[in-house]
Amino acid sequence: MLDSALVYILLLTGVAVGWLLGSRFSTQSRKSDVPDWIPSIDHLLSQNNDKTVEQFLSVEELDEDAIDLLLKLGRSLREKGELDRATHLHQKLFARPDLERSALQAIQMELALDYSSAGLLDRAEKIFRQLGESKGRFSDQALIHLIELLEEEGEWHSILDIYAQHKLPPQTGAARRASHAACEMAEKALKKKDFQQVLEFCRQALKINSSCARAYVIQGNMAFGQKEYNEAIRCYLKASDLDQQSIIRTLEPMAKAFREIQDSAGLKEHLSKQWDATRYVPALVTCVESLLEDGKGDEATEGLLNELSKAPSNQGFMALAELVISQRQSLDKSQLIVVYDILKRIVSSEPKYHCAHCGFKAQEPYWRCPSCKEWSTVKAYIPQSPEAKITL
Q1: Most buried of 75, 228, 242, 267 (most Cβ within 10 A)?
Q2: Listed residue (238, 200, 245) closest to 230, CA to CA
Q3: Which residues contact 80 (CB under 8 A, 6 or more apart)?
Q4: Nearest to 200, CA basis, from 182, 177, 214, 178
């Protein structure tokens, strides 16, 4: 009985040892197909090193680390402008029959970006669409790239279709892009004087993105063109509530609309708020002009001086000079002191030195540029006149 048990135990032990040896042999045979060396990106990026890359690509089996390294290599080549090498690398990788679906999709994404950078937009669009429909981990990213590509081509309807068909996460910024696509269609309709279409596209833009100030700017422009000045002002003010920077696009027609309805007080109140919120100098200048129209030249000068003393700028100082000259005003001693202080603060804010290598502006004459780290490149900063810039 004991002999039988001993034989049985020895038999089990032999089977276990054989299984372990077989498993180890199998693992070693698989690893033998994988390179026991992983080259660095710098090594693979070096010139005339295509043979090393081809050797790496010809390995019978690539693990995740090797694929990740090759994808990084491809991105580096594309960023360096070597699109032919990047495309060749990704095409060779994509042709391999042994890769998993997730790896193939990652390669497709890089290949589409290669095509897009090379101007092969049809090929890039096709791949982005395929990935977008795949519902894989690259689908959202591919759809955003597709939308960006369609923006370059002006395919605004297609962008709206994509947004309607796919629920893209808010963090992708798809809603903002789609709302601007609707606004682009509204702008086209406005040029054709198809006012019903303008309203429909603006409503669509606001439905997609309730914070789309541009939709209200377009509606304001439409109302202004139809001499509906109160409606134009309402739309412009709504746009300002959503985005204070919309003033840079609405200032001129909005000021005209206020003047048309003879609401000088309302214009000055709004412009004062805009100046406080944005420090947009043309808004301050327009407010000053409104005071001049009311025959309040002295008040306009004093107000402009006070505001520029809080936020000095070249543009504001020029507006002040033009005001004094046009109104033939003479400044008293206290006002001249304020002007001197404004000018002094403007000059002190200008850079004294700049790096001739990277353009970095500085207040100190560094020997080594803090930005590009080059030596002896920091020179005296000499502002160029507009004529000199045009000549260059």
Answers
A1: 267
A2: 238
A3: 45
A4: 182
Of 376, 319, 360, whose CA–CA distance to 342 is shortest? 319
Backbone φ and ψ of 362, nearest 5°: -145, 160
**HEC readout, the chain:** CHHHHHHHHHHHHHHHHHHHHHHHHHHHHHHCCCCCCCCCHHHHHCCCCHHHHHHHHCCCCCCHHHHHHHHHHHHHHHHCCCHHHHHHHHHHHHCCCCCCHHHHHHHHHHHHHHHHHCCCHHHHHHHHHHHHHCCCCCHHHHHHHHHHHHHHHCCHHHHHHHHHHCCCCHHHCHHHHHHHHHHHHHHHHHHCCCHHHHHHHHHHHHHHCCCCHHHHHHHHHHHHHCCCHHHHHHHHHHHHHHCHHHHHHHHHHHHHHHHHCCCHHHHHHHHHHHHHHHCCHHHHHHHHHHHHHCCCHHHHHHHHHHHHHHCCCHHHHHHHHHHHHHCCCCCCHHHHHHHHHHHHHHHHHCCCEEECCCCCEECCCCCECCCCCCECCEEECCCCCHHHHHHC
Phi, psi of 128 (to 5 degrees): -60, -40
Mean pLDDT, the chain cut into blocks of 10 residues (392 residues total): 52 54 49 48 54 64 80 87 88 85 90 92 93 88 94 94 90 92 96 96 96 96 97 97 93 95 93 89 87 83 83 80 78 81 79 90 90 89 58 42
Cα distance between the two ends of the chain: 104
320 touches 304 (CB < 8 A): yes
Q: What's the rounded Cα separation, in Å, for the pair 156 and 160?
A: 6
Least Cα distance to 141 among 168, 175, 159 occurs for 168
Triad 271, 276, 277: Cα angle to 5°: 95
| Surface-to-core class of residue 60, CB atoms within 10 Å of its CB (0-12 exposed, 13-18 middle, 19+ buried) | exposed
Tokens of 263: 């609401």
